[in-house]
Design goal:
single chain; alpha+beta; 3-stranded mixed beta sheet; 2 helices; 34% helix; 21% strand; globular
C-alpha cells in the first residue's frame, strides 16, 4: 500500500498490528515526541514492520492520535 507524500505508517497493537497512516506533522508535536521517547525507553527501537511500532491497543492510539490532530 502506497503512502502519500507528507504521511508515514505507524503499526499499532499488542498482538496483531494494524497499520495507520498519519501526517508527518504529528512528529512536530512535543507530546507525541515524548510518547515516542517513552516507548523507546520501555520497548527499545526495533521496528521490524518497516514503520514505527507502538505496542498499545488501537483504541488508545486512535484517542491519542486524534488529540494530536492526526485524524
Amino acid at each position: 500500500m502506497d503512502i502519500h507524500k507528507g504521511y508515514f505508517a505507524i503499526y499499532v497493537g499488542e498482538q496483531e498490528k494494524k497499520r495507520f497512516v498519519v501526517p508527518v506533522s504529528i512528529l512536530s508535536k512535543p507530546r507525541f515526541q515524548q510518547l515516542l521517547h517513552e516507548l523507546e525507553q520501555e520497548f527499545g527501537y526495533n521496528h521490524p514492520m518497516g514503520g514505527i511500532t507502538i505496542p498499545c491497543s488501537e483504541d488508545v492510539f486512535t484517542d491519542l492520535a486524534s488529540r494530536f490532530g492526526a485524524f
